[in-house]
Amino acid sequence: MSVIRAIVAAFAVFILQVTIVHRMSVLGARPDLMLVLLVVLVLDRNPVMAIIIGFSLGFLQDLGNASFLGMNALAKSLIGYGIARYASGYLPESTFFKSLLILLASLVSSIIVLNIMSTFNPLTVLVSFFRHSILSAIYSALAGVVVFLILKLFPRRVVRSVGRY
Questions:
Q1: Model confidence over 25-51: pLDDT tens digits?
Q2: Rounded CA gap, 118 and 139, in Å?
Q3: Looking at residue 20, what DSSP letter applies?
Q4: In angstroms, rounded to a whole number, what is the distance separating the alpha carbons of residues 162 and 165?
């Protein structure tokens, strides 16, 4: 995905996250579309680029709620690095495994964000985690399944060994 497409996708997902997804809550849980976009963008990238993409998406998400500026940027940067470093070469090309990756990434993001918001109070983190984060992670994984199935409909260009398309 080119840089321009990634930037346009980031702003489109941010607008969807702020306007439409806010109304689609199930028992107080909402999917994190920025996290789904992060997984889509960093799966086949090097770790440094994944950190930059994660920071950019997290900072854009932080602009929607400036009270804890930087917490989503930190969480998305760490998740982007982890996905690019450990999951890119080992993950099968299956929508199921990619949705499990989104589920795990959402749970890790929730743990990081909850620790920052609750000033590292373990009881508050555990209560909030089991009350909201697990359902939100499942919701994000289901949104990721839809996104990956849509992306399968659009074939990617394959570069031959001689450099032509």
A1: 888 889 999 999 999 999 888 999 999
A2: 23
A3: T
A4: 9
